[in-house]
Amino acid sequence: MLNRNSKLILCAMGLMLGFGSIVGYFLAKWDLQSNAIVSSNNAIAATALDSKPKQINLKPAPIPPRSELELKYRICTNTQVTSKALSRFDDKQLNDLVFKVCTENS
């Protein structure tokens, strides 16, 4: 059972933690804004010792056409799988399957 002193200590700790988290959040937000860090940037600069910075696109690569995925699957597995058998997979699942099969067989 909590007595009066322990309740006061718990209230004080709660206020300190609450105030600290609010102040810490605004300090972190201010620090990010003051350094001009933009969160919606889609590219970063990568540098090497003797080269100029180049832009790297962080967007995922588009999924190839389905016919190309089916052909890659047939080549990697060395089988004659029909398109009907592969139709149960959507494009993303087939892309992941082709990647997995081709990397395991190489």
General description of the model:
The protein has 106 residues and is mainly alpha-helical. The chain folds into 2 domains: 1-36; 66-105, no CATH class. It has 4 helices and 2 strands. The chain has helices at residues 4-34, 66-77, 83-86, 91-105, and strands at residues 43-46, 54-57. The longest helix has 31 residues, at 4-34. The protein is elongated and about 80 Å long.
Blueprint of the fold:
Blueprint: H1 4-34, E1 43-46, E2 54-57, H2 66-77, H3 83-86, H4 91-105
Helix pairs in contact: 2-4
Outline of this structure?
This protein is mostly helical and 106 residues long. 58% of the residues lie in helices and 8% in strands.
Q: Which bin fits the share of residues in helices?
A: 55-70%
The largest sheet, given as strand count, sense and whether it forms a barrel, is: 2 strands, antiparallel
Q: Give the low-confidence spans.
A: none
- The assembly state of the depicted protein chains is single chain
Rg is: 28 Å
Strand content: 5-15%
Structural class: mainly alpha
Kindly report the average pLDDT value: 74
How many strands? 2
Overall tally of domains: 2
Features:
106 residues; mainly alpha; 2 domains; two-stranded antiparallel ribbon
